Amino acid sequence: MIRKPYERPAMVRNVVGRMNKAGLASGIARRESVEGLSIEKLCAEYGSPLFVFSERRIRSRVREAREAFGRRHPNVTLCCSYKTNYLGAICAIQHQEGSLAEVVSGMEYEKARRLGIPGNRIVFNGPMKTRDELVRAIREDAILHADSLDEIYSIERLAAEMNTKPVVGVRVGVDAGVHPRWDRFGFDLASGQAAQAVRRIAAGGRLTLGGLHCHIGTYILDPGAYSKAAKQIAEFAAEIEKMFGVSPTHLDLGGGFASNNTLGSQYYAGGIAPTIDNYAEAISTALMSAGNGRTRLLPLLIEPGRAIVDDAGTLITTVVSSKSLANGRKGVVVDAGVNLLFTAWWYRLGIETDRATDGLLEETAVYGPLCMNIDCIRESVPLPDLRPGDHLVVHPVGAYAFTQSMQFIRLRPAVVLVNESGVAECIRRAEVLDDLDGPERLPERFKPREEGNRSAPTSRPV
Amino acid sequence: MKETPPDIQRLRVLALSETGFVFDPRTGHSYNVNAVGIMMLEGLKAGLSQEEICSNVRKSFKTGDAEIEEDLSAFLRILKEHGLTDTRGADSPKESVL
Protein backbone atom coordinates (compact mmCIF):
# COMPACT_ATOMS: atom_id res chain seq x y z
CA MET A 1 0.00 0.00 0.00
CA ILE A 2 1.38 3.40 -0.99
CA ARG A 3 1.48 5.75 1.97
CA LYS A 4 0.39 9.28 1.13
CA PRO A 5 2.24 12.45 2.24
CA TYR A 6 1.18 13.42 5.75
CA GLU A 7 -0.33 16.79 6.61
CA ARG A 8 -1.40 17.63 10.12
CA PRO A 9 -5.17 17.21 10.57
CA ALA A 10 -6.99 20.43 9.77
CA MET A 11 -10.62 21.47 9.85
CA VAL A 12 -12.01 24.76 8.54
CA ARG A 13 -15.59 25.83 8.96
CA ASN A 14 -17.27 27.10 5.79
CA VAL A 15 -18.71 30.53 6.36
CA VAL A 16 -21.70 31.40 4.21
CA GLY A 17 -22.04 35.00 3.13
CA ARG A 18 -18.35 35.67 2.72
CA MET A 19 -18.04 34.67 -0.87
CA ASN A 20 -15.55 36.54 -2.99
CA LYS A 21 -17.91 38.70 -4.99
CA ALA A 22 -15.03 40.07 -7.04
CA GLY A 23 -14.45 36.58 -8.36
CA LEU A 24 -10.72 36.68 -7.73
CA ALA A 25 -8.87 33.44 -7.29
CA SER A 26 -8.48 32.45 -3.68
CA GLY A 27 -5.87 30.19 -2.21
CA ILE A 28 -2.15 30.44 -2.48
CA ALA A 29 0.26 30.04 -5.32
CA ARG A 30 3.15 27.63 -5.09
CA ARG A 31 6.51 29.10 -5.93
CA GLU A 32 9.71 27.12 -6.08
CA SER A 33 11.92 29.75 -7.70
CA VAL A 34 12.63 33.45 -7.66
CA GLU A 35 13.77 34.98 -10.95
CA GLY A 36 14.29 31.45 -12.24
CA LEU A 37 16.58 30.41 -9.38
CA SER A 38 15.69 27.65 -6.95
CA ILE A 39 14.64 28.98 -3.55
CA GLU A 40 16.23 26.00 -1.87
CA LYS A 41 19.57 26.61 -3.59
CA LEU A 42 19.52 30.37 -2.94
CA CYS A 43 18.96 29.74 0.77
CA ALA A 44 21.65 27.07 0.85
CA GLU A 45 24.17 29.47 -0.64
CA TYR A 46 23.26 32.80 0.95
CA GLY A 47 21.23 31.84 4.02
CA SER A 48 17.72 32.70 5.10
CA PRO A 49 16.11 35.16 5.21
CA LEU A 50 17.31 36.54 1.91
CA PHE A 51 16.43 39.61 -0.13
CA VAL A 52 16.47 38.92 -3.87
CA PHE A 53 16.35 41.72 -6.44
CA SER A 54 15.80 41.50 -10.16
CA GLU A 55 18.01 43.66 -12.37
CA ARG A 56 15.80 42.89 -15.34
CA ARG A 57 12.68 44.20 -13.62
CA ILE A 58 14.35 47.43 -12.48
CA ARG A 59 15.69 48.20 -15.94
CA SER A 60 12.38 47.37 -17.53
CA ARG A 61 10.46 49.67 -15.17
CA VAL A 62 12.87 52.57 -15.67
CA ARG A 63 12.59 52.17 -19.45
CA GLU A 64 8.83 51.94 -19.25
CA ALA A 65 8.68 55.17 -17.21
CA ARG A 66 11.14 56.96 -19.47
CA GLU A 67 9.20 55.97 -22.56
CA ALA A 68 5.83 56.82 -21.03
CA PHE A 69 6.96 60.37 -20.23
CA GLY A 70 9.17 60.69 -23.30
CA ARG A 71 6.21 60.06 -25.60
CA ARG A 72 4.33 62.96 -24.03
CA HIS A 73 6.92 65.57 -23.08
CA PRO A 74 10.02 66.71 -24.99
CA ASN A 75 12.36 67.07 -22.01
CA VAL A 76 11.90 64.63 -19.12
CA THR A 77 14.57 63.21 -16.84
CA LEU A 78 13.95 60.51 -14.26
CA CYS A 79 15.58 60.59 -10.83
CA CYS A 80 16.46 57.59 -8.71
CA SER A 81 14.82 58.07 -5.31
CA TYR A 82 17.56 56.99 -2.93
CA LYS A 83 15.46 56.68 0.19
CA THR A 84 13.26 54.08 -1.52
CA ASN A 85 16.23 51.76 -1.85
CA TYR A 86 19.79 52.99 -1.61
CA LEU A 87 21.58 49.70 -2.04
CA GLY A 88 24.48 50.72 -4.32
CA ALA A 89 23.73 48.17 -7.03
CA ILE A 90 20.04 49.11 -7.15
CA CYS A 91 20.86 52.80 -7.62
CA ALA A 92 23.66 52.04 -10.08
CA ILE A 93 21.25 50.17 -12.36
CA GLN A 94 19.01 53.23 -12.49
CA HIS A 95 21.96 55.55 -13.10
CA GLN A 96 23.09 53.34 -15.99
CA GLU A 97 19.60 53.84 -17.40
CA GLY A 98 20.14 57.61 -17.27
CA SER A 99 18.46 58.53 -13.98
CA LEU A 100 19.73 61.36 -11.82
CA ALA A 101 20.14 60.79 -8.06
CA GLU A 102 17.44 62.22 -5.79
CA VAL A 103 18.71 62.43 -2.22
CA VAL A 104 17.36 63.82 1.03
CA SER A 105 20.41 63.77 3.30
CA GLY A 106 24.16 64.19 3.29
CA MET A 107 24.53 60.45 3.75
CA GLU A 108 22.50 59.73 0.61
CA TYR A 109 24.41 62.48 -1.21
CA GLU A 110 27.69 60.81 -0.34
CA LYS A 111 26.36 57.44 -1.48
CA ALA A 112 25.52 58.96 -4.86
CA ARG A 113 28.96 60.55 -5.12
CA ARG A 114 30.58 57.19 -4.32
CA LEU A 115 28.68 55.72 -7.24
CA GLY A 116 30.37 58.31 -9.43
CA ILE A 117 27.40 60.64 -9.80
CA PRO A 118 28.61 64.25 -10.13
CA GLY A 119 26.97 66.92 -7.96
CA ASN A 120 25.21 68.51 -10.92
CA ARG A 121 23.32 65.23 -11.47
CA ILE A 122 22.13 65.05 -7.85
CA VAL A 123 18.78 66.53 -6.81
CA PHE A 124 19.09 67.47 -3.15
CA ASN A 125 15.68 67.60 -1.45
CA GLY A 126 14.55 67.25 2.15
CA PRO A 127 13.71 69.35 5.19
CA MET A 128 17.19 69.21 6.74
CA LYS A 129 20.50 70.01 5.12
CA THR A 130 23.41 70.78 7.42
CA ARG A 131 25.85 73.58 6.81
CA ASP A 132 28.53 71.14 5.61
CA GLU A 133 26.05 69.41 3.32
CA LEU A 134 24.98 72.73 1.82
CA VAL A 135 28.58 73.85 1.33
CA ARG A 136 29.33 70.67 -0.57
CA ALA A 137 26.14 70.86 -2.61
CA ILE A 138 26.87 74.49 -3.57
CA ARG A 139 30.49 73.73 -4.40
CA GLU A 140 29.50 70.75 -6.54
CA ASP A 141 26.61 72.54 -8.25
CA ALA A 142 23.93 70.15 -7.01
CA ILE A 143 20.28 70.72 -7.93
CA LEU A 144 19.10 72.21 -4.64
CA HIS A 145 15.47 72.52 -3.59
CA ALA A 146 15.00 74.66 -0.47
CA ASP A 147 12.42 73.59 2.06
CA SER A 148 12.14 76.68 4.31
CA LEU A 149 13.03 80.37 4.52
CA ASP A 150 15.61 79.54 7.18
CA GLU A 151 17.31 77.26 4.70
CA ILE A 152 17.29 80.01 2.06
CA TYR A 153 18.86 82.41 4.60
CA SER A 154 21.56 79.81 5.35
CA ILE A 155 22.32 79.36 1.67
CA GLU A 156 22.50 83.14 1.25
CA ARG A 157 25.06 83.39 4.06
CA LEU A 158 27.09 80.55 2.57
CA ALA A 159 26.91 82.16 -0.87
CA ALA A 160 28.43 85.32 0.59
CA GLU A 161 31.14 83.35 2.41
CA MET A 162 31.95 81.30 -0.66
CA ASN A 163 31.67 84.27 -2.97
CA THR A 164 29.34 82.48 -5.31
CA LYS A 165 25.77 82.75 -6.54
CA PRO A 166 24.24 79.27 -6.24
CA VAL A 167 21.18 78.11 -8.10
CA VAL A 168 18.40 77.32 -5.64
CA GLY A 169 14.94 75.97 -6.31
CA VAL A 170 12.02 75.80 -3.93
CA ARG A 171 9.71 73.06 -2.86
CA VAL A 172 6.13 74.18 -3.37
CA GLY A 173 3.15 72.81 -1.46
CA VAL A 174 -0.08 72.58 -3.43
CA ASP A 175 -3.57 71.34 -2.69
CA ALA A 176 -3.99 68.48 -5.15
CA GLY A 177 -6.96 66.97 -3.37
CA VAL A 178 -4.83 64.40 -1.55
CA HIS A 179 -5.67 63.65 2.06
CA PRO A 180 -3.90 63.89 4.38
CA ARG A 181 -2.20 66.82 2.72
CA TRP A 182 1.58 66.89 3.08
CA ASP A 183 1.87 70.50 4.18
CA ARG A 184 4.94 70.16 6.38
CA PHE A 185 7.25 70.32 3.39
CA GLY A 186 8.21 73.38 1.40
CA PHE A 187 6.25 76.59 0.87
CA ASP A 188 2.50 76.72 0.55
CA LEU A 189 1.37 78.08 -2.81
CA ALA A 190 -2.14 79.25 -2.00
CA SER A 191 -1.16 81.40 0.99
CA GLY A 192 1.62 83.17 -0.92
CA GLN A 193 4.55 81.59 0.95
CA ALA A 194 5.95 80.08 -2.25
CA ALA A 195 5.84 83.45 -3.99
CA GLN A 196 7.58 85.00 -0.98
CA ALA A 197 10.38 82.39 -1.16
CA VAL A 198 10.81 82.90 -4.89
CA ARG A 199 10.87 86.69 -4.41
CA ARG A 200 13.62 86.29 -1.83
CA ILE A 201 15.71 84.16 -4.22
CA ALA A 202 14.98 86.02 -7.44
CA ALA A 203 15.19 89.52 -6.05
CA GLY A 204 17.57 89.07 -3.12
CA GLY A 205 20.64 89.33 -5.30
CA ARG A 206 22.57 86.51 -3.62
CA LEU A 207 20.97 83.48 -5.30
CA THR A 208 19.78 82.41 -8.72
CA LEU A 209 16.35 80.87 -9.05
CA GLY A 210 16.44 77.15 -9.81
CA GLY A 211 13.49 74.80 -10.24
CA LEU A 212 10.10 74.36 -8.66
CA HIS A 213 9.73 71.08 -6.84
CA CYS A 214 6.47 69.53 -5.72
CA HIS A 215 5.79 66.16 -4.11
CA ILE A 216 2.16 65.66 -3.24
CA GLY A 217 2.37 62.44 -1.24
CA THR A 218 3.00 58.76 -1.43
CA TYR A 219 1.15 55.83 -3.00
CA ILE A 220 -1.15 58.23 -4.85
CA LEU A 221 -3.72 56.09 -6.62
CA ASP A 222 -5.37 58.96 -8.47
CA PRO A 223 -3.37 60.32 -11.43
CA GLY A 224 -5.82 63.23 -11.39
CA ALA A 225 -4.07 64.54 -8.29
CA TYR A 226 -0.91 64.99 -10.38
CA SER A 227 -2.92 66.87 -13.00
CA LYS A 228 -4.02 69.34 -10.35
CA ALA A 229 -0.49 69.70 -8.96
CA ALA A 230 1.14 70.05 -12.39
CA LYS A 231 -1.35 72.69 -13.50
CA GLN A 232 -0.76 74.79 -10.38
CA ILE A 233 3.01 74.50 -10.62
CA ALA A 234 3.09 75.37 -14.32
CA GLU A 235 0.88 78.40 -13.78
CA PHE A 236 3.02 79.47 -10.82
CA ALA A 237 6.12 79.23 -13.04
CA ALA A 238 4.43 81.50 -15.59
CA GLU A 239 3.51 83.96 -12.84
CA ILE A 240 7.11 84.03 -11.61
CA GLU A 241 8.32 84.89 -15.09
CA LYS A 242 5.80 87.69 -15.27
CA MET A 243 6.66 89.03 -11.81
CA PHE A 244 10.45 88.73 -11.79
CA GLY A 245 11.43 88.33 -15.41
CA VAL A 246 13.11 84.99 -14.71
CA SER A 247 11.90 81.51 -15.41
CA PRO A 248 12.46 78.51 -13.15
CA THR A 249 15.10 76.19 -14.61
CA HIS A 250 12.83 73.15 -14.37
CA LEU A 251 9.71 71.67 -12.82
CA ASP A 252 10.06 68.62 -10.57
CA LEU A 253 6.79 66.79 -9.93
CA GLY A 254 8.33 64.42 -7.39
CA GLY A 255 7.24 60.82 -7.04
CA GLY A 256 4.65 58.98 -5.00
CA PHE A 257 3.38 56.75 -7.83
CA ALA A 258 1.79 53.57 -6.50
CA SER A 259 3.30 50.13 -7.04
CA ASN A 260 1.49 46.88 -7.56
CA ASN A 261 1.37 46.16 -3.84
CA THR A 262 -1.76 45.78 -1.70
CA LEU A 263 -2.58 48.32 0.97
CA GLY A 264 -3.75 46.95 4.32
CA SER A 265 -7.20 48.46 3.89
CA GLN A 266 -7.61 47.42 0.27
CA TYR A 267 -10.46 45.11 -0.74
CA TYR A 268 -8.81 43.62 -3.80
CA ALA A 269 -5.36 42.05 -3.66
CA GLY A 270 -2.93 44.11 -5.77
CA GLY A 271 -3.63 45.22 -9.28
CA ILE A 272 -5.24 48.61 -8.61
CA ALA A 273 -2.28 50.88 -9.19
CA PRO A 274 -2.49 53.14 -12.23
CA THR A 275 0.11 52.45 -14.89
CA ILE A 276 3.11 54.72 -15.39
CA ASP A 277 1.38 55.74 -18.62
CA ASN A 278 -1.59 56.99 -16.59
CA TYR A 279 0.64 59.18 -14.45
CA ALA A 280 2.63 60.41 -17.47
CA GLU A 281 -0.56 61.30 -19.30
CA ALA A 282 -1.98 63.19 -16.32
CA ILE A 283 1.17 65.21 -15.70
CA SER A 284 2.12 65.92 -19.30
CA THR A 285 -1.38 66.90 -20.38
CA ALA A 286 -1.73 69.28 -17.44
CA LEU A 287 1.63 70.90 -18.18
CA MET A 288 0.83 71.28 -21.88
CA SER A 289 -2.58 72.78 -21.27
CA ALA A 290 -1.70 75.04 -18.32
CA GLY A 291 -2.47 78.69 -19.06
CA ASN A 292 -4.41 77.60 -22.14
CA GLY A 293 -1.19 76.15 -23.53
CA ARG A 294 0.61 79.50 -23.37
CA THR A 295 2.99 78.66 -20.49
CA ARG A 296 6.59 77.78 -21.28
CA LEU A 297 7.20 74.02 -21.32
CA LEU A 298 10.06 73.71 -18.86
CA PRO A 299 12.34 70.67 -18.45
CA LEU A 300 10.60 68.13 -16.25
CA LEU A 301 12.08 65.98 -13.49
CA ILE A 302 10.20 62.97 -12.10
CA GLU A 303 11.26 61.00 -9.00
CA PRO A 304 9.51 57.62 -9.08
CA GLY A 305 10.82 55.32 -6.35
CA ARG A 306 8.31 52.71 -5.30
CA ALA A 307 6.89 52.32 -8.81
CA ILE A 308 10.37 51.45 -10.11
CA VAL A 309 11.84 49.12 -7.49
CA ASP A 310 9.01 47.63 -5.42
CA ASP A 311 8.16 44.86 -7.83
CA ALA A 312 11.85 43.98 -8.27
CA GLY A 313 12.32 42.90 -4.64
CA THR A 314 11.43 39.58 -3.01
CA LEU A 315 12.16 38.27 0.46
CA ILE A 316 12.63 34.56 1.03
CA THR A 317 11.97 33.46 4.59
CA THR A 318 11.94 30.08 6.32
CA VAL A 319 9.40 28.57 8.68
CA VAL A 320 10.76 28.09 12.19
CA SER A 321 7.69 26.58 13.86
CA SER A 322 3.93 26.36 13.63
CA LYS A 323 1.42 26.33 16.42
CA SER A 324 -2.24 26.57 17.36
CA LEU A 325 -3.17 29.90 18.89
CA ALA A 326 -5.50 30.25 21.87
CA ASN A 327 -8.51 30.83 19.60
CA GLY A 328 -7.76 27.73 17.52
CA ARG A 329 -6.31 29.71 14.62
CA LYS A 330 -3.01 28.59 13.19
CA GLY A 331 0.17 30.58 13.45
CA VAL A 332 3.62 30.15 11.98
CA VAL A 333 6.86 31.75 13.07
CA VAL A 334 9.28 32.60 10.27
CA ASP A 335 12.83 33.94 10.35
CA ALA A 336 11.97 37.39 8.92
CA GLY A 337 9.76 39.85 10.73
CA VAL A 338 9.00 43.53 10.89
CA ASN A 339 12.70 44.12 11.50
CA LEU A 340 13.06 43.49 7.76
CA LEU A 341 9.51 44.24 6.63
CA PHE A 342 8.58 47.53 8.22
CA THR A 343 6.23 47.87 5.27
CA ALA A 344 4.10 45.00 6.65
CA TRP A 345 2.41 47.58 8.86
CA TRP A 346 0.67 49.26 5.95
CA TYR A 347 0.76 46.65 3.17
CA ARG A 348 -0.94 43.27 2.92
CA LEU A 349 2.23 41.75 1.53
CA GLY A 350 1.84 38.86 -0.89
CA ILE A 351 2.91 35.50 0.53
CA GLU A 352 3.54 32.33 -1.43
CA THR A 353 5.00 29.02 -0.34
CA ASP A 354 7.31 26.47 -1.91
CA ARG A 355 5.43 23.61 -0.24
CA ALA A 356 3.28 21.45 -2.45
CA THR A 357 -0.10 20.66 -0.98
CA ASP A 358 -3.25 18.90 -2.01
CA GLY A 359 -4.64 19.51 1.40
CA LEU A 360 -6.59 22.18 3.12
CA LEU A 361 -5.52 25.80 3.37
CA GLU A 362 -6.08 27.33 6.77
CA GLU A 363 -6.14 30.98 7.70
CA THR A 364 -2.77 31.41 9.34
CA ALA A 365 -1.06 34.27 11.15
CA VAL A 366 2.53 34.78 10.02
CA TYR A 367 4.78 35.99 12.81
CA GLY A 368 8.39 37.09 12.67
CA PRO A 369 11.23 35.94 14.94
CA LEU A 370 11.29 38.95 17.25
CA CYS A 371 10.28 38.49 20.87
CA MET A 372 7.75 41.29 20.44
CA ASN A 373 4.00 40.95 20.06
CA ILE A 374 3.98 43.50 17.25
CA ASP A 375 6.08 41.27 15.03
CA CYS A 376 3.40 40.08 12.65
CA ILE A 377 3.80 40.06 8.86
CA ARG A 378 0.24 38.98 8.05
CA GLU A 379 -2.62 38.54 10.52
CA SER A 380 -4.32 36.02 8.30
CA VAL A 381 -3.33 34.35 5.07
CA PRO A 382 -4.51 30.99 3.71
CA LEU A 383 -1.58 28.59 4.02
CA PRO A 384 -1.11 24.85 3.86
CA ASP A 385 0.29 22.81 6.72
CA LEU A 386 3.80 24.24 7.01
CA ARG A 387 6.79 22.56 8.60
CA PRO A 388 10.07 23.94 9.91
CA GLY A 389 12.34 24.46 6.92
CA ASP A 390 9.55 25.25 4.45
CA HIS A 391 10.00 28.56 2.70
CA LEU A 392 7.66 31.48 2.23
CA VAL A 393 8.18 34.08 -0.46
CA VAL A 394 7.13 37.64 0.38
CA HIS A 395 6.59 39.98 -2.56
CA PRO A 396 6.81 42.82 -3.54
CA VAL A 397 9.29 44.22 -1.05
CA GLY A 398 11.68 46.20 -3.25
CA ALA A 399 10.66 49.62 -1.94
CA TYR A 400 11.52 50.83 1.56
CA ALA A 401 11.75 47.35 3.11
CA PHE A 402 15.52 47.26 3.02
CA THR A 403 16.19 50.95 3.69
CA GLN A 404 13.84 50.86 6.67
CA SER A 405 15.06 47.51 7.97
CA MET A 406 16.72 47.52 11.36
CA GLN A 407 19.20 45.57 13.43
CA PHE A 408 16.65 45.04 16.15
CA ILE A 409 17.19 41.73 17.94
CA ARG A 410 18.53 40.13 14.76
CA LEU A 411 21.17 41.17 12.25
CA ARG A 412 20.22 41.87 8.68
CA PRO A 413 20.51 39.14 6.03
CA ALA A 414 22.30 39.05 2.70
CA VAL A 415 20.92 40.69 -0.42
CA VAL A 416 21.41 39.22 -3.87
CA LEU A 417 20.79 40.67 -7.29
CA VAL A 418 19.81 38.36 -10.11
CA ASN A 419 21.45 39.86 -13.17
CA GLU A 420 20.09 39.87 -16.68
CA SER A 421 21.81 36.56 -17.41
CA GLY A 422 19.92 34.97 -14.53
CA VAL A 423 22.95 34.71 -12.26
CA ALA A 424 22.72 35.68 -8.58
CA GLU A 425 25.33 38.14 -7.31
CA CYS A 426 25.66 39.02 -3.64
CA ILE A 427 25.28 42.81 -3.40
CA ARG A 428 25.29 42.93 0.40
CA ARG A 429 26.64 40.21 2.64
CA ALA A 430 24.79 39.08 5.75
CA GLU A 431 25.72 41.24 8.71
CA VAL A 432 27.94 40.07 11.53
CA LEU A 433 27.95 41.30 15.12
CA ASP A 434 30.95 43.54 14.45
CA ASP A 435 28.83 45.55 12.01
CA LEU A 436 26.62 46.46 14.95
CA ASP A 437 29.25 46.61 17.69
CA GLY A 438 31.86 48.43 15.61
CA PRO A 439 30.90 51.98 16.66
CA GLU A 440 30.55 51.02 20.35
CA ARG A 441 33.26 51.89 22.85
CA LEU A 442 33.21 49.77 26.03
CA PRO A 443 34.86 51.54 28.98
CA GLU A 444 37.81 49.55 30.30
CA ARG A 445 36.08 48.83 33.63
CA PHE A 446 33.30 46.85 31.92
CA LYS A 447 35.56 44.63 29.86
CA PRO A 448 35.61 40.94 30.83
CA ARG A 449 38.77 39.94 32.66
CA GLU A 450 40.75 36.79 32.19
CA GLU A 451 39.18 33.52 33.26
CA GLY A 452 39.45 32.97 37.02
CA ASN A 453 39.81 36.65 37.75
CA ARG A 454 36.33 37.96 37.10
CA SER A 455 34.74 40.71 39.09
CA ALA A 456 31.27 39.58 38.01
CA PRO A 457 29.76 36.42 39.50
CA THR A 458 30.09 33.40 37.21
CA SER A 459 27.97 30.76 38.89
CA ARG A 460 24.54 29.91 37.52
CA PRO A 461 21.97 31.49 39.87
CA VAL A 462 19.23 28.89 39.44
CA MET B 1 -1.43 14.17 32.64
CA LYS B 2 -3.96 11.79 31.11
CA GLU B 3 -6.31 13.49 28.66
CA THR B 4 -9.98 13.42 29.34
CA PRO B 5 -11.77 11.41 26.64
CA PRO B 6 -14.15 13.42 24.49
CA ASP B 7 -17.87 12.80 24.26
CA ILE B 8 -18.33 11.81 20.65
CA GLN B 9 -22.12 11.64 20.58
CA ARG B 10 -22.18 14.80 18.49
CA LEU B 11 -19.62 13.40 16.07
CA ARG B 12 -21.84 10.44 15.32
CA VAL B 13 -24.42 12.59 13.54
CA LEU B 14 -21.88 14.24 11.24
CA ALA B 15 -22.08 13.43 7.54
CA LEU B 16 -18.63 12.88 6.06
CA SER B 17 -17.65 12.73 2.42
CA GLU B 18 -14.41 11.11 1.38
CA THR B 19 -13.34 14.38 -0.28
CA GLY B 20 -13.31 16.09 3.10
CA PHE B 21 -16.70 17.81 3.22
CA VAL B 22 -18.37 17.51 6.61
CA PHE B 23 -21.95 18.49 7.41
CA ASP B 24 -23.42 18.87 10.87
CA PRO B 25 -27.24 18.38 10.59
CA ARG B 26 -27.66 19.55 14.17
CA THR B 27 -26.45 23.09 13.46
CA GLY B 28 -26.41 23.28 9.65
CA HIS B 29 -22.71 24.11 9.70
CA SER B 30 -20.35 22.61 7.18
CA TYR B 31 -16.59 22.12 7.27
CA ASN B 32 -13.71 21.14 5.10
CA VAL B 33 -11.33 18.61 6.61
CA ASN B 34 -8.08 17.38 5.12
CA ALA B 35 -7.29 13.73 4.44
CA VAL B 36 -5.66 13.00 7.80
CA GLY B 37 -8.49 14.80 9.60
CA ILE B 38 -11.11 12.73 7.78
CA MET B 39 -9.38 9.50 8.78
CA MET B 40 -9.25 10.62 12.40
CA LEU B 41 -12.87 11.76 12.31
CA GLU B 42 -13.99 8.43 10.88
CA GLY B 43 -12.05 6.64 13.60
CA LEU B 44 -13.60 8.77 16.32
CA LYS B 45 -17.10 8.22 14.90
CA ALA B 46 -16.49 4.49 14.82
CA GLY B 47 -15.46 4.55 18.48
CA LEU B 48 -11.86 3.49 17.86
CA SER B 49 -9.26 4.09 20.55
CA GLN B 50 -6.58 6.73 20.07
CA GLU B 51 -4.03 3.96 19.51
CA GLU B 52 -6.17 2.38 16.79
CA ILE B 53 -6.71 5.73 15.07
CA CYS B 54 -2.99 6.49 15.15
CA SER B 55 -2.23 3.05 13.80
CA ASN B 56 -4.64 3.54 10.87
CA VAL B 57 -3.10 6.92 10.05
CA ARG B 58 0.40 5.46 10.28
CA LYS B 59 -0.54 2.75 7.78
CA SER B 60 -1.91 5.27 5.27
CA PHE B 61 0.43 8.24 5.62
CA LYS B 62 4.18 8.80 5.81
CA THR B 63 4.87 10.14 9.29
CA GLY B 64 6.43 9.46 12.69
CA ASP B 65 4.57 7.93 15.65
CA ALA B 66 4.95 10.73 18.18
CA GLU B 67 3.74 13.30 15.70
CA ILE B 68 0.45 11.50 15.05
CA GLU B 69 -0.42 11.28 18.74
CA GLU B 70 0.31 14.96 19.27
CA ASP B 71 -1.65 15.88 16.16
CA LEU B 72 -4.64 13.75 17.22
CA SER B 73 -4.71 15.63 20.52
CA ALA B 74 -4.56 18.92 18.63
CA PHE B 75 -7.36 17.76 16.33
CA LEU B 76 -9.55 16.90 19.31
CA ARG B 77 -9.02 20.47 20.54
CA ILE B 78 -10.08 21.77 17.12
CA LEU B 79 -13.26 19.66 17.27
CA LYS B 80 -14.00 21.04 20.70
CA GLU B 81 -13.43 24.61 19.53
CA HIS B 82 -15.98 23.99 16.77
CA GLY B 83 -18.41 22.71 19.40
CA LEU B 84 -18.40 19.19 17.98
CA THR B 85 -17.34 17.43 21.17
CA ASP B 86 -17.79 17.94 24.87
CA THR B 87 -15.07 16.91 27.22
CA ARG B 88 -16.44 15.11 30.23
CA GLY B 89 -14.92 15.01 33.65
CA ALA B 90 -12.66 12.01 34.26
CA ASP B 91 -15.19 10.61 36.73
CA SER B 92 -18.11 10.88 34.34
CA PRO B 93 -20.41 7.91 34.53
CA LYS B 94 -21.09 8.04 30.77
CA GLU B 95 -19.80 5.33 28.55
CA SER B 96 -16.26 5.90 27.39
CA VAL B 97 -15.75 5.20 23.73
CA LEU B 98 -11.99 5.56 23.71
CATH topology of the domain at 125-304 in chain A: TIM Barrel
Number of strands of chain A: 22
Helical region count of chain A? Answer: 11
The averaged pLDDT of chain A comes out at 92
Counting H and I runs of at least 4 residues, what is the number of helices of chain B?
4
Tertiary shape of chain B: globular
The low-confidence runs of chain A, each spanning 5 or more residues with pLDDT under 50, are none
Distance between the termini of chain B: 16 Å
CATH topology value of chain B: Arc Repressor Mutant, subunit A
CATH class (first level) name of chain B: Mainly Alpha
- CATH class category label of the domain at 125-304 in chain A: Alpha Beta
Give the amount of beta strand of chain B, in percent. Answer: 15-25%
Give an account of the 3D structure:
The complex is a heterodimer of chains A (about 450) and B (about 100). Chain A is an alpha/beta fold and about 450 residues long. Chain A has helices spanning about 40-45, 55-70, 90-95, 105-115, 130-140, 150-160, 195-205, 225-245, 275-290, 305-310, 435; strands spanning about 5, 10-15, 35, 35-40, 50-55, 75-80, 100-105, 120-125, 145, 165-175, 185-190, 210-215, 250, 300, 315-325, 330-335, 350-355, 360-365, 375-385, 390-395, 415-420, 425-430. In chain A, strands 5, 15, 16, 17, 18, 19, 20, 21 and 22 form a nine-stranded mixed beta sheet that branches. Chain A has an eight-stranded parallel barrel with strand order 6-7-8-9-10-12-13-14, surrounded by six helices. In chain A, helix 5 (about 130-140) links the parallel strand 8 and strand 9 (about 145). In chain A, helix 2 runs parallel beside helix 9 (about 275-290) and helix 5 packs across helix 6. The longest helix of chain A has 22 residues, at about 225-245. The model of chain A has no long low-confidence stretch (mean pLDDT about 90). Chain B has a single domain, classed as Arc Repressor Mutant, subunit A, CATH 1.10.10. In chain B, helix 2 packs antiparallel against helix 3 (about 50-60) and helix 3 packs across helix 4. In chain B, about 30% of the residues are buried. The interface of A and B includes residues 4, 5, 14 and 327 of A. Strand 2 of chain A pairs antiparallel with strand 4 of chain B, so a sheet runs across the interface.
